[in-house]
Amino acid sequence: MSTLKKTLLAGTLFVMITGTLCHFVYEWSGSHPVAGLFTPVNESTWEHMKLLFFPMLFISFFLNSRLKKEFPCITSALALGILTGTFSIPILFYSYTGILGFNLAPVDILIFFISVILGFRTVYDLALSCEKKDQGFLLVALIFLLCICFFLFTWFPPELALFASPE
Questions:
Q1: CB-CB contact of 162 with 50 (8 Å)
Q2: What's the whole-model pTM score?
C-alpha cells in the first residue's frame, strides 16, 4: 500500500472517530461556548456538518506537512476534500429524507461515514492528478469562509431548514 493510501486511511479513521466523539463534546463541556464553535450545539444538519469539517481541517494541517514534498497538490486536494465531505452531509441527508419524509438515526450516522470516505477519496484522487492545483488559493479561501460561517451561524443561525433541528 502506498504512503498516500496509508496516510489518508489513517486520516479517514481519525476523522470518523473524532467526529463521532465530537457529537457529545458540547454536552460534556457543560455547553461551553468555545466547544460550541467546533462541535454541534443542536441537532440541525448545519451543526452536524461540523463533525466532519473541524476534525478533517485539523488533520489536514498534519497531512499537508507530511505529504507536501511527495504530493505537491495535496493542499488543494485536502481543501476540496474537506468541502466535498462537509457538503455531502446535507446533500445525502436531504436526499433521503426528501424521499422517505423522515430521518433515521442509523442512516444519519452512515451518511457521516460515507461523507468522510467521499472527502478522503477526493483528496486521494486530486493529490495524484493535480487537477485542482491552480485553484488552491480559492479552495483554501472557501475553507476559511466556511469556518467563519460555522462560528457565526452557531450563535446566530439564519431561519432556514438547514439550521433547524429535524422534527
A1: no
A2: 0.94
